[in-house]
Structures are given as structure tokens and as C-alpha cells.
């Protein structure tokens, strides 16, 4: 039995019962694929259900506001996925009459859809013979064939894409692609793979060469950037506060947060409060209290954020102030949401 047949046979016996496997509707497959990029199935599943309930069709998603979409996405991270999802929904609904392209090349032209996602949708929905290459596929192929080319280099991407295409079952690409991804997720896991019960263990080169623990090879990322965030949490007798929307190309674009002052390093309370930027931001008649002496460390892929929250008792705020109990209507970063979950009005 060859490689592809063994994988398909394993899959038909061991596959998980996932909601997007009950359909070939491109809208729902697209939703699931975007959500599962850099996200575990267990984490993404509740979001999938919520999106399908709130936006049953691509037209419903297109008609929603970006704020509604980001709020529903809140906590899933990598928010550019949500923004691209929304933009693409508007394009499909408005320009394509709600009909998704039915081939890899057409799908690849849509915003937020790269090689992997286009391959997945084209093969699963339309049974087009295009190979998927995600983290699971990299791992299975690297171990089975003992490929040591780093997977996060141009040469590695080309090599694994070619190898994946060679292994593809052209008669049944939909099932095969799902099989190899599921195999990597459940059997050939990153840590503690189930080699003893693996149907491919007699022919797996990494197992024979004792390289399971070092494959696939991935070059280390650059130095992690450290950032120091100081959030000003305003409150007054009217129980209102200030939120600002993040703009620009940085992290959390489109999300809301308390007024932010970023410093180059962590300052003492005295140093922070004596800074001219802080004085100007809080005003002359305000009382400022540090909420958390130890900063909250929020780790992102290329940066670590050290956040402190400063409680600011102020007089009348600007007309842009919102009631504290309305913050839940706004999409905010997890860092802000975690603060809101633990803080009590009495803290002020």
C-alpha cells in the first residue's frame, strides 16, 4: 500500500468529527481555513460556530461592520485575518454576486488567501488536484522523507511544495489533503508523535535515522522586541472612560484600547508621572494610581509587551468619553480584556 493510500485509510478510520467536514460549501470551508491559520482546532471551533450563527452567508458577513467582525473575532489573535475576511466577503458579495471562484488560481486572487488556503478550498470544495502545505504537512513530509531543508526558507518552501504535489492523490485530492493534515495533527504530532502505532513506521526515514525530534528543521526567528505599554484608565463621577482605536500598520489595527503611552523602558512611578507627555495626557487636577506594580507580559510572535495600567481619576472627560459598561461593545486586545475581567470599580 503506497503513501497516499495509507494516509487516506488511516484518515477514514481516525478523523475527527469537525463541523466544516460536513459540508463542501466554500463559504464555510473558507471561514474554517482562515480561522485555523496559526490556531488550534480546539481554540478555533467556538469562533467558527459563532461566526456561522451570526453570519450564515457571505452576504451577512459582508453587510456587517468591521467593528462587529472584530468584536466576534476578539481573542483569536492575528486580527489582520479578520479584516481581510471582511474585505473579501464584501468583494465576493458585491463583485462576484456571492459566488466564490471555483479554482485555485481564482481563489488565490482574493485578499487574505495565500497558497495554502487556495489549495485547501480548491481541493476540498471542488476536488481540484492541488496539494496543500501547512505546518502539519511540512512535519509529515520532513519526517517521512528525512528532508533537512529548513521549512521557513524560500528553498524549503519550493522543495516541500514540489514533494507535496508528487505525493498528492490526483484521483481523490479532497480526502487526501485532509488526511495528511489530520495525520500531522493527531499521529505525527510536533511533540511525542505516536510512532509505535504509526502505519508508516516501517518506511519512515526519520524514524529509521532517529531524527524524529529534529525534523522538520526551522531557522530561528530574529530577536524578540520588547515594548513597554502604559495604559491610562480614566474614570470620573459619571463613570465614563476613554478608548482610542488603533490605526496604522502595527499590531491590533482596528481594535480599541485605553489611551496609551509607550516608553523605551520600564520607568518607576515617579519617572513616569513626571514625564511631560504623561502630565499633558492626564491633566492638572487628576489623581493617578498604578494598578499593577508588576507589568503584565503579553507575548506575540515577534514582540513581548510589558503592560502597566494607571488608574486616572479625572474631572470631566471629552465628549468622546463612553460609559464604562459600554466597553464590552468594542473589540479590544486580549491584554485589555484580561484587565477588564479582573478590575472592579472599587479599585478607583
Automatic annotation (TrEMBL):
List the SMART domains.
ENDO3c, FES
**Any keyword DNA repair?**
yes
Per the annotation, how and in what number is the cofactor bound?
Answer: Binds 1 [4Fe-4S] cluster.
Its recorded reaction(s) are: Hydrolyzes free adenine bases from 7,8-dihydro-8-oxoguanine:adenine mismatched double-stranded DNA, leaving an apurinic site
The cofactor(s) it depends on are:
[4Fe-4S] cluster
Enzyme Commission no: 3.2.2.31
Keywords (alphabetical) are: 4Fe-4S, DNA damage, DNA repair, Glycosidase, Hydrolase, Iron, Iron-sulfur, Metal-binding
> Is Iron given among the entry's keywords?
yes
Family membership = Belongs to the Nth/MutY family.
General function of this protein = Adenine glycosylase active on G-A mispairs. MutY also corrects error-prone DNA synthesis past GO lesions which are due to the oxidatively damaged form of guanine: 7,8-dihydro-8-oxoguanine (8-oxo-dGTP).
Q: Report what the protein is called.
A: Adenine DNA glycosylase
Name of the gene this protein is made from: mutY
